[in-house]
């Protein structure tokens, strides 16, 4: 009795999930696997937690939460990798040396540096499924997390451009 009902329930449940799982696998294969840069300040764990937070704030119509999580993880990876690459290119140093230079700046200098980096990255990154109003706060959030992870004292933005208008 109970075993047969449970088996039928599992079988029908698996059938419902199969097309959804196949769609998710197509999304994953489309973006490939995330590989953070060597010496990256924005660790894989931090990237996943940032993508989860962005996913709770930004909604993409007609896409399920799991697919959104995959998409936001890829967006965070792309922005984080580009951020670290551009910082190293611009300052001609490795990430550790950049952290030391940022450490020497005062709050206003770090805020100004942050705003400049956000504007440059926003000009170079285009996510087709997001508009500029959705992209900019995500990029600001990732840059803020980079700064928070880079600076021993941590980082809280002191300027006027707030994240998602909340904090």
Termini separation comes to 56 Å
**Strand percentage, roughly?**
under 5%
Shape: globular
The assembly state of the depicted protein chains is single chain
Low-confidence stretches: 2-17, 23-37
Taken in chain order, the helices and strands follow as HHHHHH
Can I get a quick summary?
With 167 residues, this protein is mainly α. It has helices at residues 2-31, 44-57, 65-91, 95-103, 107-124, 132-150. Helix 1 packs parallel to helix 3, helix 2 crosses helix 3 (65-91) and helix 3 packs across helix 6 (132-150).
Descriptive overview:
The protein is mainly α. The chain has 6 helices and no strands. The chain is globular, with a radius of gyration of 20 Å. The chain starts with a helix and ends in a 17-residue tail after the last helix. Residues 2-17 and 23-37 have low confidence and may be disordered.
């Amino acid at each position: 009795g109970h075993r047969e009902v449970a088996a039928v329930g599992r079988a029908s449940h698996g059938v419902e999930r199969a097309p959804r799982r196949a769609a998710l696998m197509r999304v994953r294969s489309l973006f490939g696997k995330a590989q953070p840069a060597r010496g990256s300040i924005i660790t894989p764990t931090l990237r996943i937690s940032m993508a989860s937070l962005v996913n709770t704030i930004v909604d993409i119509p007609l896409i399920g939460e799991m697919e959104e999580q995959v998409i936001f993880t890829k967006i965070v990876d792309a922005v984080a990798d580009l951020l670290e690459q551009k910082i190293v290119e611009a300052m001609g140093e490795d990430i550790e040396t950049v952290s030391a230079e940022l450490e020497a700046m005062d709050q206003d200098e770090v805020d100004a540096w942050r705003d400049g980096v956000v504007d440059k990255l926003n000009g170079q990154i285009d996510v087709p499924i997001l508009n500029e109003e959705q992209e900019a706060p995500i990029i600001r959030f990732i840059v803020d997390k980079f700064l928070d992870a880079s600076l021993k004292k941590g980082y809280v933005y002191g300027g006027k451009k707030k994240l998602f208008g909340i904090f």
